[in-house]
Amino acid sequence: MNFVLPDIGLADQLDYMLRAAIVGVLPWELALFTNNPTFSQATVWADMTEATFTGYSRVTLTRATWTAATIISGRAVSTWDTVPVQWTCTGSPQTIYGAAILEPVSNKVRKAEKFASPVVQAVGGILQFLPRWTYTTEPNP
């Protein structure tokens, strides 16, 4: 038997995972990667190569900044803030293939995604990315 989370359950659980203040749980980090990995259930941060262009640094995703989950087409959706994170390349151009959300220190991958197409981050180039989390369950047959 499959459990099905009604919309209110989906939104509440996503809010708890992303937004709730939990003692001892550090905020996750947003990182960019420069290689083109093949993702699977076994994906780890070592499968990705972190960006190093001048002007890049990881972004701490504070829990309070995630938006309240809303239901869109039967899925709970939240974004980190309402405006994209922005990096400006001031040197050392690189091609960026995607972004990952990681636990700090351990670098455990919580979410990874490739961009629709790689972004060539040339000197003076601006890369914007709005972290978005979608959560759902399978329908009960």
Summarize the structure in words.
The structure is a single chain. Helix content is 9%, strand content 36%. The longest helix is centred in the N-terminal third of the chain and has 12 residues, at 7-18. β6 (94-102) and β7 (109-121) form a beta hairpin. It has one domain. It has one helix spanning 7-18; strands spanning 28-33, 59-61, 70-72, 75-79, 85-88, 94-102, 109-121, 126-129, 132-135. It has a 4-stranded antiparallel beta sheet with strand order 2-1-6-7, with no helix packed on it. Strands 3-4-9 form a 3-stranded antiparallel beta sheet, covered by helices on one side. A two-stranded antiparallel sheet has the order 5-8. The radius of gyration is 16 Å and the shape is globular. The chain has 141 residues and is mainly beta.
